[in-house]
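Input/output pair, single chain:
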Amino acid sequence: MTIEQDGIRVASAAREIDAEAGRIFELIADPAQQPRWDGNDNLAVAEEGQRVRSVGDVFTTRLTGGAVRENHVVDFVEGRRIAWKPAEPGREPPGHLWAWTLEPLGPSRTHVTHTYDWTELTDEQRYARARATTPERLHASLDRLAALAEGS
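Output:
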């Protein structure tokens, strides 16, 4: 689903994954794992030892083009929710947010929602890239995440 009206700009995708929520969450909350499931093919590497533990944490990633991003964690509930706002090093986040919500459906099945929200983005030079982050790209991340979590 994509909504771009009245200043609200959100892309979202969801699917069920045949894995326990904690296992899936570990793949998301450990930045070193993120390039393995990134469906945007935007993340090159993140150093080990940056596992997110709370709101206020900041983790660093290097993009495929070489740029570095500091990701400011703005929502965190262990095993259930995590969201961050990326920024250039030493700068304030420009207004886009990556979010994950996990809902256990049983001991080994989880409903996972991945959302990209650029409602607060004001830098018009970033709009084309933001619009390119479609539900299909988010779903690609979900599919890669599922393959890792399900062990295939």
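The domain at 2-149 is CATH 3.30.530.20 (Alpha-D-Glucose-1,6-Bisphosphate; Chain A, domain 4). Strands lie at 2-5, 8-17, 43-45, 58-63, 68-77, 81-87, 97-106, 109-117.
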